[in-house]
Amino acid sequence: MDYTQILLKPAVSEKATFVKEVGGQVVFYVHDKANKIEIKKAVETAFAVKVTDVNVVRKSPSPRKKFGKVVGKVPGYKKAYVSLAEGDKIEFFEGV
User: Fold this and answer.
1) Gene3D superfamilies from the entry (predicted)?
2) Given 10, 31, 43, 65, which is the most exposed site by the fewest CB atoms within 10 A?
């Protein structure tokens, strides 16, 4: 897979912002079939930074209920918490 297919979008949330400021990590939504090695290579290729560690979180799909009846499905996702080397940073939402 190409890195444009692996990295779907950056996660924009309070937790992702906190982890970025305090821990030096960046959070991305990634392809379901991507593994840690592919995610590391994709981030290094796309942003020209050194990646030290990758942690992956997976949420499985769950049923969507209205008034006690199942009416659909909430899609699942896979997120990657990418730790960058000291001095490296990815600036895509600075000043927003």
Assistant:
1) 3.30.70.330
2) 65
